[in-house]
Amino acid sequence: MKIKSAEFVVSNSKVEKCPDSRLPEYAFIGRSNVGKSSLINMLTERKSLAKTSSRPGKTQLINHFLINGNWHLVDLPGYGYAKVSKSAKRTFQKFITAYFANRKQMVCAFVLIDSRHKAQKIDLEFMQWLGENQIPFCIIFTKADKIKPKALETNIKNYQTEMLEYWSEMPEFFISSATSGLGKEEILGYIESVNQQ
Ligand code: GDP
pLDDT by residue (tens digit) across 107-130? Predict the structure, then answer.
C-alpha cells in the first residue's frame, strides 16, 4: 500500500467521542517505550505524526489518524508503566475494555512487543485477554535493528512456546525496525489485504 495521505483527526479521552465513522480501523498498542510512535511515523512516512515518548501518568488518549482517506490508524495509550498505582492500572483496563467493546469498526489490533526481550508476562496476559474477548490481533516485534538475528529468532520462539500453551496457533506476526523501515511493506500489505476482503 502506498501512503498517499496521513492526517491527524482527533484525540479523545472517552471512547464515546471517537469519530462516528464506518471506516475500518487498526489499533496500535503496546508497553510504553516499545516504539509505537516511531513505528506509526515509519509506516505513514511522517516524521512526527505520532508524538514519541509519552510520560507515565499523562492523560490516556485515543488518537485517530486518517490514512489514504479510507482507513483509520488508531494510536492507543501504552501500558505497563512500572510506577503506576493499582487504581491507575484499573482505569487503564476499563479504558481499553471500553475501546474494544465499543469500536465495532476495529478490524485488527497490532500488539507491539520489543523484540529484544523474551516473553514478558504483561504482554502475554494482554494478548490472552484479547483472545478471550475474541478481539483479532497480530503481533509486531519492534526494534529489530537493535538485536542480532539469532537472538531475535530465540525471543520469537520463546513467545511461540509461551503462546502455544493457550492457543492452537501463533497469531500472525511481523518484525519491524523504525530506523531501517523493516516490516513496513508487510504490515501495510496486510492492512490492504484485510481492507479488500
Ligand atoms: P512509544 O513510547 O512506544 O511511542 O516509543 P517511541 O516511539 O517513543 O520509542 C521509544 C524509544 O525507542 C525512542 O528513543 C526511539 O527512538 C527508540 N526506538 C523506537 N523504535 C525503534 C527502532 O525500531 N529502532 C531503534 N534503534 N530505536 C527505536
Answer: 999 999 999 999 999 999 999 999
Residue 54 pLDDT > 60: no
Among 140, 117, 165, residue whose Cα is nearest residue 36: 140
- For the Cβ of 45 lying below 6 angstroms from any atom of ligand 1, the answer is no
Maximal CA-CA distance, the chain: 45
Polymer length in residues for the chain: 197
Cα 17 from Cα 100, distance rounded (Å):
14
Closest atom of ligand 1 relative to the 32 alpha carbon: 2
**Superfamily name and number for 6-196:** P-loop containing nucleotide triphosphate hydrolases (3.40.50.300)
Contacts of 115 (CB under 8 A, 6+ apart): 141, 142, 143, 144, 146, 147, 152, 155, 156, 175
Mean pLDDT of the chain: 91
What 3-state class would DSSP assign to 63? Answer: strand
**ipTM here:** 0.99
Determine the distance separating the centroid of ligand 1 and the alpha carbon of 140, expressed in angstroms: 13
Asked which of 6-20, 73-87, 114-128, 134-148 is least confident by mean pLDDT, the reply is 73-87
pTM: 0.94
Q: Which three cell numbers stand for residue 21?
A: 465513522
Domain boundaries defined on the chain: 6-196
**CA 168-172-177 angle, 5° bins:** 140
All three cell numbers of 64: 485517530
